Structure formats: C-alpha cells, structure tokens
C-alpha cells in the first residue's frame, strides 16, 4: 500500500475476515482501501449504495486497489434492522437494472437452486468430517423435494450477507450496505429471508415487506424458508470445517427449531 500512497501515509488494518482492507490517513485526508474488492464497486458508489469511490489503481502484481471515502459511522444494531430505511435500500438494490446488467456482464451467472443443493451434498460427502445429525439429512431431502417450487424465479442482484454489521450508518445519517464480495445474481428471497428470519419479528413481516414493495404470500414464504434452510446448513458446514463446534451447534439448533416450526420434523 505504501508504494501507491507514499510512506508519509499512516496505514492500519481495518479488520474483517479477508485481511484485505485498510484505513489510510495523512493529516486531514482519510481513505478506506481494499485489495481486489468487488469489480462493480464503481456502480455501487454511483448509486449511493456504498461510500464514494475515489480512485482505482492496478499494482504490478495484478492486484487492484480501490480507495473510498473513509466515513465516521457505526454498524446497525440488530434492532435497527427493522427500520424502514433498510427495507427501502434493499429494494433499491434488488430493483436496480444497472447493477444487474453489470454483474451479468462481469460473468456472474444466475444462482441455480439445484446447484446449491448439490454443493451442500458434496460438502457432506467429501468434507473431512461426517455429519451424523439426522436433521442435516432431513433438511437436504426437504430442499430436494421443494426444488420445483424455487426454480425459474426472477433473479436480481443479491448481496448474500445480510448481517447487521454490513450496514453502515454514518454520522451524517447516510445508510450504506458494504462488503459486496459475495454478491450473486439470485432470487431476492435469499436476501429477504435472511433479514426477516434473523432480525424481524414474524408479526412485523407484512409491514416490513410492504415498505420494501411487495406483498407476503405463500410462494414468497416458501422460497424464503428454502434459502434460510440452505444457508443454515452451509453455516453448520463452514463452522465444522473450521472445527468451531460451539458455533456449529448453535446453527444446528437453529435448523432444528426451523424445521419443527415448518413441520418438517416432529418434536
């Protein structure tokens, strides 16, 4: 980073799972730097979805460094995910033809539910661990049985990580959705299910979706639950692969509760 900005800049790691993000400061100048960030960051910036992109530079080794405004702010709390502004910004993203067109031109192909199920099954079969929990196998069977009802849906740009810590509220009261490394072209039910299941009480789902701009119906409900189950299995597998047994157990309990609520398994 120093060879791009100069040795007079103070550069510190910004944290995160990839270790590829940094803060840079020189007197009153402040930047947020990231190595090999999402290539459609410029469009996200132009749409006001992420902080303003200042410049992009390619290094000799082929890495691309982006610099954005470094804004003082904080992540949203879980409670704040209920706010109408969250629903409105996510609706703007899902309905952006510019984002969808660019992501498709960058080679992103629509996410196929069949491939999701196959990937999850492959993880079970080829990972260094074997899930003996019957709930995992019951959930996979449910996903397979429900495939006809989640295929051939309209696809949009999905962020795919609706965690509250990816929502940035600045001191100037501007809301952004950051960290687009996992973005996909997929059924909007994927993002919607994550937010509603994790953060919104069921009694408020209708109002939240009304703000987003759609009506809750049986079809949407079934698709959201399909993706919630698939993502929960993926989280269990991810934590088990990292030998994080307590986190895997927490997600497994969440899966059990979900499957009981849906009548997939009995108590």
Provide a descriptive summary of the structure in words.
- The protein has 267 residues and is an alpha+beta fold.
- The protein is 45% helix and 17% strand.
- It contains eleven helices and ten strands.
- The strands form three sheets. It has a five-stranded antiparallel sheet with strand order 1-2-3-5-4. Strands 6-8-9 form a three-stranded antiparallel sheet, covered by helices on one side.
- Helix 3 crosses helix 9.
- The longest helix is centred in the C-terminal third of the chain and has 24 residues, at 218-241.
- The protein is globular and about 65 Å long.
- This is Phosphotransferase.
- Keywords: Transferase.
Summarize the structure.
The protein has 267 residues and is an alpha+beta fold.
Annotate the secondary structure layout.
Layout (H helix, E strand, L loop, with lengths): L1 H4 L4 E4 L7 E6 L2 E7 L5 H6 L6 E6 L5 E6 L3 E3 L8 H11 L2 H9 L7 H14 L7 H12 L1 H4 L5 E3 L8 E4 L4 E3 L6 E3 L2 H11 L5 H8 L5 H24 L3 H17 L6
Antiparallel strand pairs: 1-2, 2-3, 3-5, 4-5, 6-8, 7-10, 8-9
Gyration radius (Cα, Å) is 20 Å
> From the 3D coordinates, which CATH architecture of the largest domain would you assign?
Alpha-Beta Complex
Number of domains: 2
**What is the H/E string?**
HEEEHEEEHHHHHEEEEHHHH
CATH topology of the largest domain: Aminoglycoside 3'-phosphotransferase, Chain: A, domain 2
CATH superfamily of the largest domain: Aminoglycoside phosphotransferase (APH), C-terminal lobe
Binned strand content: 15-25%
Number of helices: 11
Please report the total strand number as a whole number.
10
What about the largest sheet? 5 strands, antiparallel
Mean pLDDT over all positions: 89
Uncertain runs with pLDDT below 50, 5 residues or more?
none
Strand order of the main beta sheet, please?
Answer: 1-2-3-5-4
Q: Can you give the helix content as a percent range?
A: 40-55%
Structural class: alpha+beta
